[in-house]
Amino acid sequence: LWTIEVVGSDVILTREGEPSTVLLVQTGIADIALAFDQNMRPVIAWQDTTDRLFLRYYEATISAFVVNDMGIGRCPRLSLDDKRQVALNTNDVIFAYIREAALYYRQQRDAYLIEYFVVAVPNGTQQLNGIGMGGLHFQFELSPNTEDL
């Protein structure tokens, strides 16, 4: 089990039973998400206190991790879409988020450059709780904005 947490300005990655690693130092993080690409490199998305979204991922063309400002948004979520053996050549890390009144996603195969519209966010729906595979379909879980989320 892997977890990511923000302690002060340290973004810490922990594997159950192993020492923690500080992946980066970043102030003002309000929400954070973690996934791993097919090569087990961490992908991190976060929302800062000014509602800007950022994405840190490994860019193979330069053989280094990069951080991109993805604009205004909220509820960043990440998931490796299809983890099945049959999908090894076609799976992607999916980066999903809410911007204004709509749900969007970007995918690893496009270097996260193309923003795909999913659906208008229903009135009263303020949170993207999670994303991931459900059976053979990729799913997005939305919920109302409550203090309990």
What would you note in describing this structure?
With 149 residues, the protein is mostly beta strands. Helices cover 0% and strands 62% of the residues. It has no helices and 13 strands. It has strands at residues 2-7, 10-15, 21-25, 29-36, 42-48, 52-59, 64-72, 74-80, 93-99, 102-107, 116-120, 125-134, 137-144. The strands form four sheets. The chain has a four-stranded antiparallel β-sheet with strand order 4-5-6-7, with no helix packed on it. Strand 1 and strand 2 form a beta hairpin. The model has no long low-confidence stretch (mean pLDDT 88).
Task: Summarize the model shown.
The chain is mainly β and 149 residues long.
Distance between the termini: 22 Å
Record field, number of beta strands: 13
Q: How would you sum up the major sheet? A: 4 strands, antiparallel
Helix content: under 10%
Computed CA radius of gyration, to the nearest angstrom: 15 Å
- Kindly estimate the percentage of residues that lie in beta strands according to DSSP: over 45%
Low-confidence stretches: none
> Average pLDDT, to the nearest integer?
88
Structure annotation, total helices: 0
Order of helices and strands: EEEEEEEEEEEEE
State the secondary-structure class.
Answer: mainly beta
The general outline is globular
What is the oligomeric state here? single chain
